[in-house]
User: Fold these one by one.
Assistant:
Number 1:
Amino acid sequence: QVQLEESGGGLVQAGGSLRLSCVASGSFFRVNEMGWYRQAPGKQREEVAIISAAHTTKYADFVQGRFAITRDIARNTVFMQMTDLKPEDTALYYCFASITSRSWGAAAAHWGQGTQVTVSS
């Protein structure tokens, strides 16, 4: 089966930086889009950033130029460099990947278990 392993979360002060990483492992045919979502207390899960297999990117409005998403195709890995973090960025951050497990199969969404980002004021 497919697993997504996240790392890089932690506790930082406002204005600080973190770099999140996520690697897809297991048996699959192709990794399509990858990205990051987050969920804060009292809020629904929201999209933060998405990167395609062609390295095109999309960011949520609240990112405001502070984050950068990249990927390593050969290593099935996605990264997100987060700078100028704010207390409102505090959330559980989930890795997302659209994966085709077999050449004849359909793509399916996969999720990591989440990595906590906490920003103190």
Number 2:
Amino acid sequence: QVQLVESGGGLVQAGDSLRLSCAASGRYAMGWFRQAPGKEREFVAAISWSGRTTDYAGSVKGRFTISRDNAKFTVYLQMNSQKPEDTAVYYCATPENPYSGTVSRQDAYAYWGQGTQVIVSS
């Protein structure tokens, strides 16, 4: 039922910007997570089904913006002022209840994309 495909990753220098996309099979609440080398996967940002509510991890607050285009069933993660510590594989995910507000708990997510690699060099 739920299919998620991330895209937009790449290699950038510190201070540069990237926009990640998550193409979904429907209009769902969505979260972005990332996993850096040697570290556990962590919450990055979330957006409600309606798109009216967003939430961010403290490490990206003020630099990243999550948004959605409901007509396209696509969620974006605009990443500005990137830092080397942003290097990770980024995943989008949909919670068990896809028609919800923002969700930050990983165990609430039932569907995951395959991930897209972001490398930020100094």
Number 3:
Amino acid sequence: QVQLVETGGGSVQAGGSLRLACAASGRTWSYYAMGWFRQAPGKEREFVAAISGNGDNTYYVDSLKGRFTISRNNANDTVYLQMNSLKPEDTAVYYCAAGRKPYYSGSYYYTGTGYDYWGQGTQVTVSS
């Protein structure tokens, strides 16, 4: 079992930045893909970004237009999401996830079904 804990959420004004972190513990696997998803009030959970097990490949939802950057440090089993130029529509609970399926099929990076473990989420609120 893998446990994931997100930190770094909070309130920020539009145009500001936040850096989320997701620390993994338990039976971690070096080839686990790590992803970030978010869910706004009244909306379904949506894909934000993902990164391959070795950190060489990253994937983003097109609508972010380069504002977000995902990275990982496998030495401490931590994945980060740098969020810049935040907008009110970025307000959501952000979840990190880990899974093995993307290692075998890249399409699973983009969907929740590709991930087996989920964190509790961290709230990001962007004021206008």
Number 4:
Amino acid sequence: QAQLVESGGGSVQAGGSLRLSCAVSEYIFKTYYMGWFRQAPGEEREGIAAIRRDGTTDYADSVKGRFTTSRDNAANTLYLQMASLRPEDTAMYYCAASVAPRNSYMTPLQVLALMLSRGAEFGSWGQGTQVTVSS
């Protein structure tokens, strides 16, 4: 069964940085797309970053220019480098991985969200790591 385990969350002052990691144990074909989502209490889940196996990335406007996602395919690890953190970044952060569709004109974030919506045969979630940013 697929396993995705996030680490690196914690508490940080506004303006600070954190790096999240996600260790992935999954069939290679189910990790063509990987990325990050977050959810604050009472809020909708938000897709914030996605990366294709070839390194193509996609970011939500809310984090563009501040967050960078990367992947080490040999180590089966996904990263999210977060800089210039703000209190509104406080949320539970989840990593995710999915298969690729045959053809798509969608952005990597859109593809990842769509594949995850189709269930466990298409995409997998981690259990999350908490990030808290104080003023």
